[in-house]
Amino acid sequence: MSRTRLYLFDTTLRDGAQTAGVEFSLEDKIAITAMLEELGVDYIEGGYPGANPVDTAFFEQRRTKRASFTAFGMTKRAGRSADNDPGVQALLQSQADATCFVAKAWDYQVELALGSTTDEHLEGLAETVRVAAAAGKEVLIDLEHFFDGYKANPTYALACVTAALDAGARWVVLCDTNGGTMPSEVREIVGTVLEHAPGEKLGIHPHDDTGQAVANALAAIEMGVCQVQGTLNGLGERCGNTNLVSLIPTLMLKPYYAQRFETSITLERLARLTHISRAFDDRLNRAPARQAPYVGASAFATKAGIHASALLKDFSTYEHVTPESVGNERSIMVSQQAGKSNLLTALARHDIRIEKDDPRLEKLLAEVKQREAFGYSYDGADASFCVLAHEVLGTLPSFFEVEHYRAMVERRHNAQGEEMTVTEAVVKLRIDGELLMSVAEGNGPVNALDQALRKDLGKYSALIEDVELADFKVRILDGGTGAVTRVLVESRDASGERWVTIGVSPNIIDASFEALYESITYKLLKTEAALGSTVTAHRRPVLAAG
């Protein structure tokens, strides 16, 4: 039986940015795009070029390699042509492959929000589509409040669908903007829409205000819609959007859907789902939801008792899919089973080959679990995992040893009598027995330590001169005066590669320095073959900030 192709449209960088407490920097957007590319979605909607400096900068160049790079905006304003509308032109002049225009499918919204008429709005919708298609863009129309609009005035709502398709739109997306539509209503209304438009031209975009966004997406798919829009971990305003992290494995692993539909995601990419979900949360400085379907730490966890006993005999008894299929792991709390297969997969990503019965694997697994109990999280800090693995396996070259570091912040007045803050850092390290000391000033203690650490690395200096600090995030894991601090440092080099390292300590400076140290170590590890370094066991420095 031939399967229907479903297209996955991710709107994390736009819809997700509307989440309370979430602000994406340009570096965040670039890094999240890489996560989405790793997952393998078809479309990545990056935001609204021209609306703010971050989105404008993001669309100055193409940011995707495989997915369709998509810009979001509004159809032309009433009273002017699409050629003379700055918002429309900003989208057409961006480096996006596709443009997603939002239009009002509810007559009440047209009159209330736009102060326009339905006829005028339909004319503007069609003109916008024609101009964008003529500019070589793949055009999508997001019909905002479609389901509410259909209930109020089905004639106008359906006219929006046909006007967009007649003008040349590739996709018309039906939006449940306030998230209040029930799955039964979605089936009924989508069924009617399919009498006027083919399923291969239709998309669904449910919000999660009743906790049914994934169910509504599945209902639309079952009826024949071929595109679904959602976000990583269900991010979005109010209660969020369709959670692609829950929807994708359901489509791929549940026989009813897997036998009828296919997506762009491979089983190999699906096995990275848990890692991507948690790395995304780490970037947002928030704790991953432990009970999240498929990817939560408790998704395959069972305490002692009859369930655990049954699991020991047949794991499928209480698991609807295998944990490994989504990159998660089984946790039976009385025996602390599992973890080795995931560890072997993670090691293979760094070209570290080890047999599954190698006793060092047990040692590494124990070390990872111990560190995670203290506050480390390697899902979002893969470079630190690489360094740790080499260390525990005894294959970490002894590049340099840090003997001492100090960071000092001083508030003083300059020659003009203006109050200013000066930060200075000192780092002493030893390479091949030679003691090197560097002093640097920076914009804060972390920047100063970063500058001092990289200022003079002896024979390795040329190998790290293109390394720069791209992002820095701090999260307090436990409140109170004895709080544990987790620091994530993102670095990049001239090749375009980015990597994230982690440091954890009650002292924020100590945690920051650990992450900086591992960033440099990881960079040197990448060039180990060229260095011809002697491979020796090498313990990381555990120093208190001076």
Structural class: alpha/beta
- In total, the number of strands is 18
Low-pLDDT stretches: 333-338, 533-539, 541-546
Discrete helix count: 21
Give me the oligomer status. Answer: single chain
* Rounded radius of gyration (Å): 26 Å
Beta fraction:
15-25%
InterPro entries: 2-isopropylmalate_synth_dimer, AIPM/Hcit_synth_CS, Aldolase_TIM, Citramal_synthase, LeuA/HCS_post-cat, LeuA_allosteric_dom_sf, PYR_CT
EC number: 2.3.3.21
Family: Belongs to the alpha-IPM synthase/homocitrate synthase family.
GO molecular function, one term: (R)-citramalate synthase activity
Any overview of this molecule?
Residues 6-271 form the Pyruvate carboxyltransferase domain. The chain is of the alpha/beta class and 546 residues long. It folds into 2 domains: 4-265, Aldolase class I (TIM Barrel), CATH 3.20.20.70; 356-546, Double Stranded RNA Binding Domain. It has 21 helices and 18 strands. The strands form 5 sheets. Strands 2-3-4-5-6-7-8-9 form an 8-stranded parallel β-barrel, surrounded by 7 helices. Strands 13-14-15 form a 3-stranded antiparallel sheet, covered by helices on one side. Strands 16-17-18 form a 3-stranded antiparallel sheet. Strand 4 (68-74), helix 3 (86-92) and strand 5 form a beta-alpha-beta unit. The N and C termini lie far apart (68 Å).
